[in-house]
Amino acid sequence: MSGPAPDRFDRRLVAPLILGSTLNPINSAMIAVALVPIGAAFGAPPSQTVWLVSGLYLATAVGQPVVGRLVDKYGPRRLFLVATALVGVAGLVGMLAPTLGVLVVARVLLGFGTCAAYPAAMSLIRSEADRTGVDSPQGVLTALTVANQVLAVVGPTLGGLLVGLGGWRTIFSVNVPLSLGCLLLGWRYLPRGRAGQDARHHPGLDVLGMALFAGTLTSALFFLMAPSLGHAWLVPLAVVLGFGFARRELRQDDAFIDLRVLGGNRPLLTTYARQTVNYTASYCLLYGYVQWLEDGRGLDATQAGLLLLPVFVTGLVTTLITGRYAEVWVKLVVGGIGIVVANGIVLATVGTHSSLWLLVLVGAIAGVTQGLVGLANQNALYHQAEPSRMGASAGLLRTFMYAGALIAAAAVAATLRQDATTAGLHELSTFMLGCGVVLLLLTLPDRSVRRIGRTPSSTTSTQKDGVHAADHA
Questions:
Q1: What is the pTM (predicted TM-score) of this model?
Q2: Cβ–Cβ < 8 Å for 282, 370
Q3: 3-state DSSP: the chain helix, strand, coil percent, rounded to 5?
Q4: In total, how many domains does the chain have?
């Protein structure tokens, strides 16, 4: 097999990276329509089945930057292969799980197993740009966005069909062939021995920093999943561990997360904030709206999944059309307006007797929003992150994404309470309206994202803005 051309992106990388990147979003979304039948099978209330959602999010939020840093230091190939093999194991555990507890373990394993593909993809795209001396094709980033953001929406539809055909265990079994496909493509096409840039200069690994980071994030996210006075002790624990983590990283030469660089890179921090706000609104719609369709509107899992199909279609079309353009700011502004309109205005008018076209309209506008904002945040990170830490930076983007998902879970629990009523859905829509407003406030005055994609030279200048700001922090 001949090697890649010295001045062109290696297209053989696209298939394994795209397939690997579908594992996390599809598994995140398919479970939405399976919670009710799983609860019925094990006699478990929603307060217990919610751990099938939270377990994967917690594992992913903690694991993404850790695995991303390992990708930076040791190269993407070995991490990709080990992690995608774990996805297959998790699928088998879920297929055979005799209890809800074992099923939660399978979801946690899925969370860790799906941690490597996205950081590996972003790292390889960045390294290909360094190898060829030219920026990677915009279409590659667009394809990655389709896999990571838009394909997440097909999860409920696919999950509903699988549950209807073979029961809820089929949503776990689908991971076995996906895992095998990733292993075969990754083994054949991912480059051997291409270690991260940091590994050549700093052979050490900041294990203590990773442990403190994991403890801080786990404590904070556990509280977000079930905020109450009984869990209030998690807040000071997170503060203490976070202080220890910050002190460690500021003094460490080869830090897990270089807070001196990250703290000075304000454009990248703003991108992380937009990621959290956007996915808070997205997951409020995904889980709150789906529960209302099943409980409030009386649809079954397959019907509820099909009603989310417009989100997939419009998201896919939006990403494919706008992906050829590198501009970021306009995508973010239009996406923020879309959240306000779809989640804050149209959803507030939905009721148990609303016409089908109105329910379709909610999903259609939400899909446009998801396609625009997901693509924009990923492209912004590609230009703002330090190249040698692209894997860890991409992993953190996923961490902030799932922080938004956990905030959304808390918001759904607070507004829908015991039953997914129309009144609760309208309360949730008000919360999502606030998310859209915050996204616009984070975007409109941000001059750094205005420059991305404006001219051929803006790519370099924008990246320097982020990295040089960090250097002078």
A1: 0.73
A2: yes
A3: 80, 0, 20
A4: 2
